[in-house]
Amino acid sequence: MTPIRDYMSGDHRRCDDLFAAVEQSLSQPDPALPAQLFADFCQATLAHFQAEEEALFPAFEQATGIRMGPTQMMRLEHVQMRSLMDEARQALAAGDQDDYLGAAETLLILMQQHNLKEENVLYPMCDEHLAGHAGELLPLLQKTTGSAQS
Amino acid sequence: MQAMLSFDQAPPLAAPLRFFLTAPLFAAAAGLLLLILGPELLASRWTAGALAFTHLLTAGFMLQTMVGALLQILPVATGAGVARPLGVARAVHGLLTLGLLFLVGGFLTYRSELFQGALLCLGGGVLIFLVAVGRALAQIPMGSTIQWALKLAVAGLGVTVLLGLSMLVNLAWGLSWPLLEITGIHLAWGLVGWGVLLLSGVAYVVVPMFLLTPAFPGWLTRLLAPLLFLLLALWSGAEAAGWGGAPLLAALVAAGCGTFALATLWLLVRSKRARLDATQRYWRLGLACAVGGAALWAVGQLWPALGLWPGLPLLLGMLLLVGGFMSVITGMLYKIVPFLIWLHLQNAGQGRVLAPNMKRILAESAMARQMAAHAASLALLLAAVVRPAWFAWPAGLALLLSNLWLLVNLWRCLQVYRRHLRHIGEQLAAAA
């Protein structure tokens, strides 16, 4: 049973789809569409970060006593991703497609290697150490990440 | 503190980068060799020049990049990194580079002391690498498919190198072992047991994630690596014993590789990324060459007129090595190198000085133009096998230039890194 890994990995894929939609919209005639879709992507991704930073990571840290390990590393990468989101958003606002593509490509690779570490290492550790708390933790994660869907 | 933490998992930039910058030099040297020796090199796969050329591409370009990439990707993909990565990288890189120079010198001059040097250096370099990676892989639990593929690929490298070393012993001390049979088995383990297994293991992760394609089918990721490994082992035994079932086993191995290439192409066509960037075009070219190579091999088996043509192994070699492996590897380098430079600059800037994004580190147009040169060199190399007298020199020149161009592109990334690192130093000093 890996409920945390399954749910959070699924949420990663949802964010991937939103990311891809922005890129596809760049060739559409509507000039306002990319910025709007990028805002949707950021909202979903930031909600995912929030669920991790406010619910999942503290629970993991409390259960294991490991505070300066993988969760700290993931928090640092969240900071880096937020900064790239700002850079990409500014490029879209300025109408600079090349600069958007550069920031977005960097963001995508950072995001994917981050997801890989979470899905292969951190989430399985969470499922192992938080098995007894999944009942209350999972609805909380769903609520925080799902809030971006409405 | 922040910078320190993020470096916990990623090895220092100098560890993988030394391999990535050396690799194009070896491929360029292969081009130079063809330019010097001309049509004579292509007379058969057994000429001294052809053996040196092949090893510059395989033990030079392919092995160097694959070792560098594996050191980098292991901690990310499996959570288990190599201990003391910089020390391991320095030792392995130095020994593999020196060993390959001895080997190429040995093929070209046939002096036994050069083969002895190659034996020591290549054996030592690969041994250090296998021990370091083996220890890292042993820490991770069995289960995930990529870990299986990586473990079997590392074992495949071990078999390839052992067979290669056994031939070197033979050459260095003038023994009379059946070199022709061992060569075929050595080649199959290198291309499939190490090359295809490592590539497939890495592809299962990077293709869906970076190119936003659907996931690889579960049956393929579960079955391909163990099945190919088993079939290779059975085929090697059959081939060594001269058993009649060997061609059937070889056909199954080729079919397995073809299935992987077709499945990956099928996924690439379904990529959600709107733009075909250099990496994606390099991958499509590489996989199309792999499928073409498998088909050509099959036709050669069924149609004796083609099967007996001495140019066929050379044509297959060009198609699979330059068209297949080099294309896919270069496509990956164009993602890995700019990203690593960004990552290390971002960490050095401590969140206060932002790093230039990947396309500012290496522009898309620079990659696209280099890829056109690579495609031209592939076309000329294939033509050179069919008409050596016309195309051997232009093909050598094209291979030399396209790889120097790749080196220039990667070197430019390093220049951006150095320049920006100075900028960070100044900014942080001014803020302090």
Automatic annotation (TrEMBL), chain A:
Domain annotation Hemerythrin-like: ranges: 6-126
InterPro entries, per the entry: Hemerythrin-like
UniProt superkingdom: Bacteria
Protein's recorded name: Hemerythrin HHE cation binding domain-containing protein
Natural source organism: Azospira oryzae
Taxonomic lineage of the native organism: Bacteria, Pseudomonadati, Pseudomonadota, Betaproteobacteria, Rhodocyclales
From TrEMBL, chain B:
Statement: the UniProt record of this protein carries the keyword Transmembrane: yes
Lineage: Bacteria, Pseudomonadati, Pseudomonadota, Betaproteobacteria, Rhodocyclales
Keyword field contains Transmembrane helix: yes
Keyword set, alphabetical order: Membrane, Transmembrane, Transmembrane helix
Protein name as annotated: Permease
Residue intervals passing through the bilayer: 20-38, 50-74, 86-108, 114-138, 150-175, 187-207, 248-269, 281-303, 315-345, 366-385, 391-411
Superkingdom of the source species: Bacteria
